[in-house]
Amino acid sequence: ENPSDASSQFMLGMDAMAKKDYAGAVASFSKAAAGDGKNYAYYYNLGRAQYMAKQFQDAKASFSKAAELNANYAPARYNLGLTNLRLDDRKAALDSFQKAHDINPAHERSYLEEGRALSQMKEYKAAAGAYRNVLRINNGNRAAWQELGSLYYQTESYANAENAFTQALSLLPSGAEDPLTSYNLSAALMAQGKSAAALNYAKKAYDARKSLRDGASQVNVIYNYALVCDKMGKSDEAASKYQEALGINPNH
User: Fold this and answer.
1) Which candidate, 111, 152, 187, 249, has a CA 20 to 30 Å from the CA of 132?
2) How far is CA 144 from CA 31, 112, 115, 134, 218, in A?
3) What is the pLDDT of residues 125-139, one digit of tens each?
């Protein structure tokens, strides 16, 4: 009966979001914010709907307004960071993630995204610190262990990479497979001269290769297994696996 009733428009927006009707959610949240321009939750949820509708410039404005109205609301800063990434502004995204965990030192996801942004900026030492903060909050975050392991491997800190990849594999649910992490662990072990252990994980990665959807990743896993066999003098097995990799990608 009153189309400008902000709280009713907000509830309609939440209903539309639950139905993944993002255009409808944007329309309703916009009316809610127009009806009560001091409610940060209206702008925050408007930003969420705009982000899902791929209206990233509008989402940035909405999340910024939500953060202005409630300076202590970490999710607004975090989502502003994600939006800035979509707008290819990594520096602004990094600033938003840092503000989010300054507000809430237990905001795990903002540290994780900070680590990713810093890694892409090749600020490896700071990135490692961000990943360690994720693990300080939640030692069971597999993505953080995997990405920290990759960062350590990239910086030739192979023992630390080994530990991180081992931790990631230890967190797998029973019966689950993770060929890429096994592959990465085998590479870290091989770099330290731990050939027998490297072969074990290279074989595990090879055995689980078909769970990878990406053909290029499958080839890398097969090639890595062949390479480790080759270095350990298992020439027949190595030749067979090199041939298998070439059967998928003749130009490898």
Assistant:
1) 187
2) 39, 7, 9, 7, 23
3) 999 999 999 999 999
Within 13 Å of residue 175, how many CA atoms lie on the same side as its CB? 0
Element (H, E) at 199: helix 195-207
**Residue 41: DSSP 8-state:** H
User: How many Å apart are CA 81 and CA 130, to the nearest integer?
Assistant: 15
Torsion sign, CA atoms 126, 127, 131, 134: positive
Name the 3-class secondary structure at 155: coil
CB contact burial 36-65 (16+ within 10 A = b; e otherwise): beebbbbbbbbbbbbbbbebbebbbbbbbb
Per the CB < 8 A criterion, the answer to whether 16 and 25 are in contact is yes
- At position 214, the amino acid (one-letter code) is D
Per-residue pLDDT tens for 51-74?
999 999 999 999 999 999 999 999
